Structure formats: structure tokens, C-alpha cells
């Protein structure tokens, strides 16, 4: 019997291109200048980078973790700790130059200096001052508010810039009295000027209360028919049709609108707030939807698990299994009972609970919004039933594992809803693992669930 392998899709090596992977810009006389590559030469070459640096351009490298695994390993752990996506850019700036105009970002930023020195200036926002942290980046600012502080960062220093903080930076000329190696002497012959390098880690991407409220409203409005969420009073009100003539109405401060629109809208919002406050399913469904985006886009776990013994042999009903990288999986979409508001262990056949997993996410797709050219096919385990032939098809729902040469890389896996409690204990419990037979009150569902997890390498057997 073939031992399961926790395989991952291969990342794609690419030749970086200007504008797509690397942006070159400089800030001169209060204006930003962007380098525009020649139409036939979009690729980033060493000589061209050296030429741009000597001309005073800053090189901004987008998402370097896609091609540098040690950095990806760090970011994967940051994402796991922060519970949200973490992006990264690298900036290489020639000394005595400034690459970007003063601006603010729509995300929190942690700056880490890695080489050279850079002087940072932080100021208040220019008038009119925003009343809340902005949800969009500012773009280049031609003026700033009151100077708040400045600092010069050296390698190893870090600076935290909350969302909406106006900032700018200038690379500082540095001198060194340290001994120069032969390698450094050879490198100095290329006439490249001194540079300052830093990394920026960005987080809290679209993580405001407004984003969460939008997710709650969406969860209620688009809930599956027949679900508990769709049956809530707030969902029914949100799905109600607006009155005729809505396109002609104009909101006037302090005045009631025709057809009582203000009162109706306020009533819907109050009903929504009451149901969220009562601990209903709307908030949990919204959090599940947000988790689906996060787990589908985050980096895969660092490949530190070397317990090969725990992935040998067959799983039996008495086997104790433990989750591999439990922080990279999440149980969602449990079937909800109309009375208890939680999962129903006696659910009818055909109802499913979903496990989100980032185990097979691609490193080279991290923080990329566009879809890959070819979507990877996913094996549908729903077809595996009592009549599935082990010898012919290579799978035994009671103890075998997949023998197919092609290994799929899913972002989510469905199980019978009777396995919900077992999956919650396995992936969100105390880490002690569970006995296979306790995954479900249905022996077939319990064994099938365990085998599926084992085939994908998401669990190992405790010896």
C-alpha cells in the first residue's frame, strides 16, 4: 500500500518584468518619475537595474517571498499569528535619494531595514484631516500636515506605521570603517552607488468593521434557501423589495423620505444588530466567508514536519490521529439545527461540512489577485461509496489510500455533516488528536473521513 504524500503543487519560476514584478521610480523636485521600459525589453536584467540605481531610481520589488522561501516561511508564520494576509515589498534606494512621494497606505505597514540607512519622516495628514483611518491609499501628496517625528533606521531597526500614517523616506549616505573583503572590492568595481534596502510587511488588508458588517449583510442576503440564516428576520427584511420610485428619491438631512424609507431602513439595521447581538448564525457565517478567502489565499505552512513514521501504514477505527499543521485548516459550513442553532449530528445523508485548508496553496500565487491560467482539477470524493472497487480504482474507504498517480490540491474538502464534532476536536481542539471511530456516530462516515484526511497528508497516526 502506498504511503500518503503531503505533496504540493510546484511553484513556477519566472523571469521578472518591469511594472509587473519590479517598479522603478524616483522623486525629484517634488515630482515622482516612473521608469517606463522599452516595449521590446520588459524583463528585469542586472545591468538595467544597475543603470537605474545609478540614475537615482528606487527599485520596488513586489512580493519577493514568491521566489525566496526563507522570507515566505517568515510570512507564513506571521499570517498564522495575525489571522490575515501579509504582503511584502522590497525597496532598494540609492543613497541621498527619495523613491516615493509622501503618502499614506490603506494597510498597516511594518518597515524592517536590512542594509544601509534611511531617514523616515512621519507627519499628520494634510487638511482637511480625515475623521477615520482611510480605506484607500492617498497616492502622491503634494503637501503634508504637521511634522510628528523623524528617525534614521539602520539594519535591524523596525518601524510600525498604522493605516493612514503619512510618511516618506530618504536614503542616507553611509561610510564604513570595517575591513573590506576581496569579494566586496570586486563588487565595488561595477561603479554602483551605495544603496539602502528595506522590507515592508503589510497587513490588515480589508479588515475594518465596515468590511465585517458588509460580510454580515452579504451572509444574510445571499444565504442558501432553507438555511437557518435565510430564515432569520433580518435576512427576510434584507431580501424585501424596495418601493417603486427609489431612483427618484433624494436624501435630505433632517427630513423624512417618501414611503417611510428612512424608518424602514433603520428598522432593518436594528433587526440585524439584534440578531448579531443575540449570537445567531449571521456573524458566524460572515466569519466563515472571510475565512474562506483567507485560507484560499494565504501561504502554505512551512514544510517543517518530518514525522514520516506518522504517515505510514493504514488507518483503523482504533487509530488515534492528530492534525498536521492545525493552524492551517478551519472547519466551516456545519449543518445548523433549527432548534439548537448548531450542527446536527443526526443530519440526513447528503449534508456536508467543509474543511478549509491552505496546505496546497501555491507560493508563486501569494498576494496575486488574478486567477491562474489553468485551474487545478479537484478529486470529488463524494462519488466514493460502498460500491467503490478498491482493486479496480485504488481506494478503500475503510483502510486504504489513494493509488492514483495524479494528486489533487484542493483548497476545501467536504465531509458528511455527522463528522463535524470530530473535525472540530481534531483541528480546533487541544492537540491530543482523536480516535478514528469517534469522528462520527456513523462508522462508515468516520472511517471515510479519516482516510480522506490521511490521503491528503492532513493528519498523521500517533504510534
Characteristics of this structure?
463 residues; 7-stranded antiparallel β-sheet; 24% helix; alpha+beta
Explain what this protein looks like in three dimensions:
The protein is α+β, with helices and mostly antiparallel strands. It contains 11 helices and 16 strands. The protein has helices at residues 46-54, 69-82, 182-188, 209-221, 228-231, 233-238, 261-277, 281-297, 390-393, 420-428, 443-455, and strands at residues 22-28, 31-34, 58-62, 87-94, 108-115, 117-123, 147-153, 158-161, 166-172, 195-203, 320-323, 329-332, 352-357, 412-416, 434-435, 459-461. The strands form 4 sheets. A 7-stranded antiparallel beta sheet has the order 2-1-3-4-10-5-8, with helices on one face. A 3-stranded antiparallel beta sheet has the order 7-6-9, with no helix packed on it. The protein has a 3-stranded antiparallel beta sheet with strand order 15-11-16. The longest helix is centred in the middle third of the chain and has 17 residues, at 261-277. It is globular, with a radius of gyration of 27 Å. The two termini are 18 Å apart. Residues 176-181, 183-192, 335-350 and 370-407 have low confidence and may be disordered.
